[in-house]
């Protein structure tokens, strides 16, 4: 792709580093920004810089937050005895959009994937286990994607807490095997949360 401007070329190359954005899409976005008033570009750039510099991770659940404790964990009306385990913030958003879950979350920051060099120590699993061992949690719900990596992560965590007096469940398989949670429709995902099954039962049926 030939550019008549080095400034445009640099902007396109940076934009094209975003996931799912190719050079042609990046060029279309850059040209769109170029047509907007200068203030719009300034607002966009400032929003990105401010986000990157000031974003925090919740001390309790590790969700992305504007403060040390996220709004969900700080909400006294939520059931803090039920923890839904998810991969990242996109899954929190997907489940929250269903309006069916009133517990709190624990964001792992990924899934165990040896092929990608991701082991338990790269995730927040140890902090989850510590939280459960305090004895204030009655149930944890596995809500990871129905993939090999998701099932491996579920089983690893289950083995860490199997001897503790806690209910361990998993979302019902209304989500197709291999599907990512964030792409599930809200009705299906909501039903999967409400119709969750004991994790031991899911092991027997797999």
UniProtKB/TrEMBL annotation:
Family membership, please give it: Belongs to the RecR family.
| Keyword Thylakoid listed | no
The organism's place on the tree of life at top rank = Bacteria
Pfam families given in the database record: RecR_C, RecR_HhH, RecR_ZnF, Toprim_4
* PANTHER family with a match to the protein in the record: RECOMBINATION PROTEIN RECR (PTHR30446)
UniProt key word DNA damage: yes
Q: Which CDD domains does the annotation name?
A: TOPRIM_recR
What role does this protein play? May play a role in DNA repair. It seems to be involved in an RecBC-independent recombinational process of DNA repair. It may act with RecF and RecO.
Protein's recorded name: Recombination protein RecR
Question: Which residue windows are coiled coil?
Answer: none
**Key words of the record:** DNA damage, DNA recombination, DNA repair, Metal-binding, Zinc, Zinc-finger
| InterPro entries with a match to the protein in the record | DNA_Rcmb_RecR, Rcmb_RecR, Rcmb_RecR_Znf, TOPRIM_dom, TOPRIM_RecR
Zn-finger (C4-type) residues: 58-73
| Ranges where the Toprim domain occurs | 81-176
């Amino acid at each position: 792709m030939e550019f008549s401007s080095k400034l445009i070329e640099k902007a396109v190359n940076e934009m094209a580093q975003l996931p799912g954005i190719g050079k042609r899409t990046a060029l279309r976005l850059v040209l769109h920004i170029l047509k907007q008033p200068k203030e719009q570009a300034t607002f966009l750039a400032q929003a990105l810089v401010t986000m990157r510099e000031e974003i925090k991770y919740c001390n309790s659940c590790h969700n992305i937050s504007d403060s040390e404790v996220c709004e969900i964990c700080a909400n006294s009306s939520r059931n803090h005895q039920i923890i839904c385990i998810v991969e990242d913030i996109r899954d929190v958003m997907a489940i929250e959009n269903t309006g069916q879950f009133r517990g709190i979350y624990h964001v792992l920051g990924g899934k165990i994937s040896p092929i990608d060099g991701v082991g338990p120590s790269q995730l927040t699993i140890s902090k989850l286990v510590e939280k459960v061992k305090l004895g204030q949690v009655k149930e944890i719900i596995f809500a990871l994607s129905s993939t090999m990596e998701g099932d491996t992560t579920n089983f690893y965590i289950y083995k860490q807490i199997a001897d503790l007096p806690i209910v361990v469940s998993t979302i019902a398989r209304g989500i197709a095997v291999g599907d990512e949670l964030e792409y599930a429709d809200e009705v299906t995902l909501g039903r999967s949360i409400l119709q969750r099954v004991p994790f031991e039962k899911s092991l027997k049926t797999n």
